Amino acid sequence: MTKTNSIIEAKNIIRTYGQKDDICKALDGVSFTINKGESVAIIGKSGSGKSTLMHILACLDKPTSGELLINGTDVSKMSEKQQEILRGESFGFVFQQFFLNPNDTVLENVILPLKINGQDNRKIREEKGIKILEEVDLLNKKNNKAKNLSGGQKQRVCIARALVGNPQIVFADEPTGNLDSTNGETIEKILFGLNKKGITLILVTHDQELAQKCQKQIMIKDGKIVNKL
Amino acid sequence: MKINDIITTANNNLFRNKTRTILTTLAIIIGSITLLVAESVGNGFEQYVSNNLETGSSQIFRLTKKGADKYKYGEITKFKDSDQEDDTQVFRSSDIGYLKNTYPSIIKDVFYPQYLSLASISRNGYEKFTGSAGVIYPDSSAKLISGKTPEFNQILISQEYVEPLGFLNADDAVGKVVTINVWDNNQKTSREFSLVISGVTHKSESTYPLQISYETATHINQIVSPQSVNPQSSNYLQIYTRDLSETELAEFKEKLSNTGIEASSYEDQNKQMFQIVDILRAVMLGVAAVSLAVATFGIVNTVLMGILERTKEIGLMKALGGSKKMVFQLFTFEAACIGFWGYIFSVVLAIILGLIINPISHATFLKDIDEFTLYVLTPLSVIKIFFVVMAVSFGASFFPSLKASKLNPIDALRSE
């Protein structure tokens, strides 16, 4: 076990695509540490490798080489099942494109992670969902279909869904990318509010202004960490 | 995901694309209905055949000579006087002695088949009715409503005679006296014989409505047409054997065959009927299998389309911690739900179809065969086909679902 306050430790992560002559290095030796409760921005231009990095950190993708420790455990030594449990119980995801099920109600969308992970019965799940919806101020929309919401509301549903499982880490991929400035500010406020409650926040963005609000910035260019973009 | 969540989610997913679900369900319904109809009609035939071949005895055999001209409908053969017929074609009285002496441990009795030429049947104070009478042999297992099989000077009547002859019911008829009129050889005069009713049988299409024992038939024929009791020659002989095991029977038949005699029991004759029914059933099930196969492709298509439409959703579920197994189950259960609902509809339709088909068939082409219920839907068939349909639905969705379960969450999430 490493230092108790580090939640993610990346050591020389390399991720390549293609084979032999046609190799493309998306990540080229990336190392850093993220501590518990930190807010971290992964910044970079389109195609810089920032999304690949987030996918690897979220155990959605495997590094070609390098070591990734989450809570001190080497991810490459975890079984597929253990990784699923990790994603389901310790991670929350907020996506730029929301990925809500348009024809399901807001509440159903929010409690989807609990259902997928087989937690609780329907009643308790709905109670938890309602509690979270209260926090994002969307309780009055709980029975509306997700497709009938505005962009900002959709993103709040997305955040509620990320939070319902009580995660340690929330990954947010361009959370304000599809929103106007007013809605963007609301979302930022909610996300940083979470961070204050002790949830580790990992933001992927190309928005310098948003990134500056985080405690730590990891700048990615051509698959490498740089000091300046 | 909990299993009940998977089932409800899979079932709810059916309503996502209603048109497609309805069309696939229709395909399943057509397939299942064909299967159910094929089974039911097969059941109908089987029931009819087995109900009507119940009077057969396993100890009575009909013997024919191999050299005998096999009668074919519509074919003309050269006429032969009885003295022109040779011993490879017909039986003579010497054959009876030969058979009795050669197989004393097997054959209990050998006799010429007896036929009665019946004019009418009546009861004192009631009208005369027509009828046909046959011989019932010792251990025949006639299905009796009341009474027992006839002994000497007794008669077994079918239930359709109970009311016309003025009896209250089957039990009332047993023990009463009836008179039969039997034609003389010349068919101009008839003679009366009084017989006691020994029992009442169910109505049957394949046996005589009136049945008397061999002794009674011989006795009557000796009076009305003596030559038929001891004919110069006969195309058939009947033998009554002791109860034989299968190997003994095969051996016995083989020995007879070597001496130019063919023996067939009621069972042998029935076997052919059952074979026909089996063939009929196989053909219809074949047709049904084809339509179910078509439905299978419908399911494959539906599941594939569903996966294509929901790639992102699958990606999301996997990102949120969903396992391969869960995704696989979601899609296979969805197909199973289509199969299940399709089958429920099919069974309802099959029941309704039975309510329509049977009255129509009885009113038209089966008018004269009351006993024949064309369409018999049994619970066993319904259960049997349920498993077939569910297996087909599951099987059809297996590979598409496997494909879905292997989807990479990042690819799905990147697609925008």
Kindly describe this structure:
- The complex is a heterodimer of chains A (229) and B (416).
- Chain A is built from eight helices and ten strands.
- By secondary structure, chain A is an alpha/beta fold.
- Chain A has a single domain (6-226), classed as Rossmann fold, CATH 3.40.50.300.
- In chain A, the strands form two sheets. Chain A has a six-stranded mixed β-sheet with strand order 6-7-8-3-9-10, sandwiched between helices.
- In chain A, strand 7, helix 7 and strand 8 (200-205) form a beta-alpha-beta unit.
- The longest helix of chain A is centred in the C-terminal third of the chain and has 16 residues, at 181-196.
- In chain B, the strands form two sheets. In chain B, strands 3, 4, 5, 6, 7, 8 and 9 form a seven-stranded mixed β-sheet that branches.
- In chain B, helix 2 packs antiparallel against helix 8 and helix 8 (266-309) runs parallel beside helix 11.
- Helix content of chain B is 51%, strand content 15%.
- The relative contact order of chain B is 0.19.
- Chain B is elongated, with a radius of gyration of 32 Å.
- Chain B folds into two domains: 3-52 and 272-414, no CATH class; 60-260, no CATH class.
- Chain B contains twelve helices and eleven strands.
- By secondary structure, chain B is of the alpha+beta class.
- The mean pLDDT of chain B is 83.
- The chains are: A alpha/beta (229), B alpha+beta (416).
- The interface between A and B is medium-sized, with 26 and 22 residues.
Topology:
The complex is a heterodimer of chains A (229) and B (416).
Chain A: E1 6-17, E2 24-35, E3 39-43, H1 50-57, E4 65-70, E5 73-74, H2 80-90, E6 91-94, H3 106-110, H4 112-116, H5 122-135, H6 151-163, E7 169-173, H7 181-196, E8 200-205, H8 208-212, E9 216-221, E10 224-226
Parallel strand pairs in A: 3-8, 3-9, 6-7, 7-8
Antiparallel strand pairs in A: 1-2, 1-4, 4-5, 9-10
Helix pairs in contact in A: 5-6, 6-7
Chain B: H1 3-13, H2 18-52, E1 60-65, H3 93-102, E2 107-111, E3 118-122, E4 133-136, E5 144-147, E6 154-158, H4 170-173, E7 177-183, E8 190-201, E9 210-213, H5 214-224, H6 226-229, E10 237-241, H7 246-258, E11 261-265, H8 266-309, H9 311-319, H10 324-363, H11 379-405, H12 409-414
Parallel strand pairs in B: 4-9, 6-8
Antiparallel strand pairs in B: 1-10, 1-11, 2-10, 3-7, 5-8, 6-9, 7-8
Helix pairs in contact in B: 1-10, 2-8, 2-10, 2-11, 8-10, 8-11, 10-11
